[in-house]
Amino acid sequence: NAGVTQTPKFQVLKTGQSMTLQCAQDMNHEYMSWYRQDPGMGLRLIHYSVGAGITDQGEVPNGYNVSRSTTEDFPLRLLSAAPSQTSVYFCASSSDVGGRGQGVRRTEAFFGQGTRLTVV
Amino acid sequence: KNQVEQSPQSLIILEGKNCTLQCNYTVSPFSNLRWYKQDTGRGPVSLTIMTFSENTKSNGRYTATLDADTKQSSLHITASQLSDSASYICVDPGKGGGYQKVTFGIGTKLQVIP
User: Fold this and answer.
1) For the segment A58-97, what is each residue's pLDDT rounded down to a tens digit?
2) Nearest CA of chain B to the CA of A91: how many Å?
3) CA-based nearest residue in chain A for residue B51
4) Is A49 helix (H, G, I), strand (E, B) or coil?
5) Facing residues of B49 across strands?
6) Which chain A residues are closer than 8 Å to B104 by Cβ?
7) What pairing do the DSSP bridges indicate for beta strands A64-66 and B108-113?
8) Number of CB pairs < 8 Å for A and B?
9) Exposed (0-12), middle (13-18) or buried (19+): which is B48, by Cβ within 10 Å?
């Protein structure tokens, strides 16, 4: 069971270049998110999706685009890389469990291995 | 914005010893609080979830507690092992537990030495 798979694991970009970070999950989760992790700070939400075709901005969305054409994939695009986007990026997915008589609750977030991005 | 503050920032303990990590939160409305473990170079992995009605929950050698009156949660690690070396992150998933307004603590970096 692969879970959440991110590619690439490492990437170096020059300022102004664009690239796409890939994220795929095989758990049929409806919720997917992108985070960045910087030293001395907690993970911060960039964008999230509650299902195919639906995305919304998180806490730090500027400079990033996302799309969700399928349940499995949630790519993150850097339009014009800047040194401030040097960070470790994590993709995560989660789902709702439970139902009638039990109450619905959200599962924990399942994270990918991360992509370490350096913009020079 | 909800706040999640963790202490200490870092901790070094001898293998076999116990330790307790703290999380102070100002979460409103409270849905649940989660603890994650993050090994170096890897993504966080969920350890436990604390709901409002739960005071204590265990996951192997990890025991989480929640005091809703003081808005504090703690993670107690018993008989530490070298593999416990990691960052431990306290997380408020946000309203309804949905992660759309998630707040992550900075984490406590634990190092277990032989």
Assistant:
1) 999 999 999 999 999 999 999 999 999 999 999 999 987 7
2) 9
3) A105
4) strand
5) B34
6) 35, 42-44
7) unpaired
8) 58
9) buried
